[in-house]
Amino acid sequence: MQTIKLNNGVEIPILGFGTYQITDPQEAEDAVFEAIKAGYRHIDTAQSYMNEEAVGKGIVKSGIPREEIFVTTKIWVENVSYEGVKESFQRSLNRLGLEYINLLLLHQPFNDVYGAWRAMEELQESGKIRAIGISNFAVDRAVDLAEFNKVVPQVNQIEINPFQQQTANIAALKEEGISVEAWAPFAEGKNDIFKNKILTQIGKKYNKSVAQVIVRWLVEQDIIVLTKSVNPSRMAQNIDVFDFSLSDDDKEKIAALNEGESQFFSHSDPQMIKWMASRRIDV
């Protein structure tokens, strides 16, 4: 598996298996087991996904040595504070059944981000976390965090897909030494993405699916990609992207699909911020 070297030297597999919306415990456990069986060595979860325990069980069930699996989890908004991170991180660790986490992210750019970041720096120094980062942070917020703390975020996990390409933001984050990770690369099927004429035509040229074309498009930009499926055959398909390369013409056609806005919601929408602030999870 191809890897990306983060700004602290930690290597992360460029393809990861996402577990968002896999809430049934048995289904989540089975999905993680099947993903690892298919070749994934990078598993992404979060406190708010409510499946950390099942993810941990799936990892154990796989039989693959812990040191070969890269595990990410995320701190939810209500726990974004110094004490909140320290306390909730330990609960996440316990649920996962692990002694350390490879990557810990602040899930959203809200609440006491700076207090939370100091706690994450300390946890990283202690060895309980190998890398620390952020998710859904605008570039200016990411730079602000980096400039006024000891550790520059190693990762920013943001929405990237053919309809929301974030080209300028990706370039700016990389300029700061922050690796970029894409969530919702398939836009969760919005806009009939899997039937998109341009993506379908490109796929036919290489005998690949639309999903494989999208993953390859991101990999060629050195972007870490999270894909999700509970179907073992699709899991295997989504990881099978290292035997072809997109042409410049292909990339130009994909670039033309960019709508330049989120396919889900705006993180600057006051109502969305209030909703996140009000959402409580059992952690």
From TrEMBL:
Pfam families from the UniProt entry: Aldo_ket_red
Record keywords: NADP, Oxidoreductase
InterPro entries for this protein: AKR, Aldo/ket_reductase_CS, NAD(P)_OxRdtase_dom_sf, NADP_OxRdtase_dom
Active site: 49 (proton donor)
Residues with site note (Lowers pKa of active site Tyr): 74
Domain NADP-dependent oxidoreductase: start-end pairs: 15-258
UniProt binding sites for substrate: 107
UniProt xrefs under CDD domains: AKR_AKR5F1
Any GO MF annotation of the entry: oxidoreductase activity, acting on the CH-OH group of donors, NAD or NADP as acceptor
Family affiliation: Belongs to the aldo/keto reductase family.
PANTHER family recorded: 2,5-DIKETO-D-GLUCONIC ACID REDUCTASE (PTHR43827), NADP-DEPENDENT OXIDOREDUCTASE DOMAIN-CONTAINING PROTEIN (PTHR43827:SF3)
Protein name: Diketogulonate reductase-like aldo/keto reductase
Source taxonomy: Bacteria, Bacillati, Bacillota, Bacilli, Lactobacillales
